[in-house]
Each structure stands twice: as structure tokens, then as C-alpha cells.
Specification:
With about 90 residues, this protein is an alpha+beta fold. GO terms for molecular function: quinone binding. Pathway: Cofactor biosynthesis; pyrroloquinoline quinone biosynthesis.
Amino acid sequence: MAIDPHLPIGFSPLHRLQWEEAQQKHVILYPEGMVELNQSSAEILKLCDGSLVLAEIVSKLEEKFATTGLTNDITHFLNIAFQNGWIKQS
């Protein structure tokens, strides 16, 4: 299953995105454990608030980092996040 580009993307209520001081990075916490994130992954997931669709997330990140051409990389990461249950669509 893949991300539907027309539906808003939200963070799963079963997971929590937070800054972990001990690791000096963002992590995803869930009952079974923790996933450490690199900076790019954390920036993408911070925008998964349930109000933005894929194109809006891409646009905001391209604007923030003054670049273009991020659609494929962001889509690929979000598909992985979706398959792992970190994000959801309604």
C-alpha cells in the first residue's frame, strides 16, 4: 500500500515523534521500542500533522531548504513510514 497524494498525512496516534536529548536526534517512540531518525526524516515527519497532503509537504520542505526536486525522495520516505505504521491517512 502506498501514500495517496490527495489525502492529508498524519502521524499515527500509536507513535510519538520527539527530540531525544540522550541521542541528540529526533526519534519515534512506540510501545515496542524506538526508531532513531536522521534530520531529513524528522523534518518530513514534523509536517505530518494531518492537515497537509504530499504536495504541500514537499512544497514546504523545498521552501525551507531553498531547493527543488525533493518529490521522489519525500514520497519514497513517506511510503516507508506508511508501511511501518508511523503515519496514517484518513
